[in-house]
Amino acid sequence: MLITKETDYALRILRSLADAGNTKTPIKEICDKELLPQQFVYKIAKKLAKAGIIELSRGVGGGCRLICDLHDISLLTLIAIMDADRPISACMQTNYHCPWREKYRQVCLVHTHLSHLQKEINEKLHSYSLYTILFDTHI
Q: Coiled coil where (predicted)?
């Protein structure tokens, strides 16, 4: 599982909105502050709004506003919102059909170890709140 550019941009959007407090911030202002391409930010903001993390409005006086506590959302949750199911290996995907297991009719140790590793990664990502990722200086 990689943190994609979309998830990275989402983190930056949330940082900008958290800095703005309860103020509605135009997307252009977020892009300028966070050095993000505007064509992607609205698409990402729509996903964040659909997930109930931000409020998004268009038109005159429109913009984004953070409507949740970043302490309550994990990095794993944000990754799931942005990228859905993106495991560390293709063989971990729900609908994956493994030709090796079919041919040899055995447990695949690669899959077994990757499953264990995926679980550990997910637990670690879940342990970090977005607030920690964005603002905790105690590294």
A: none
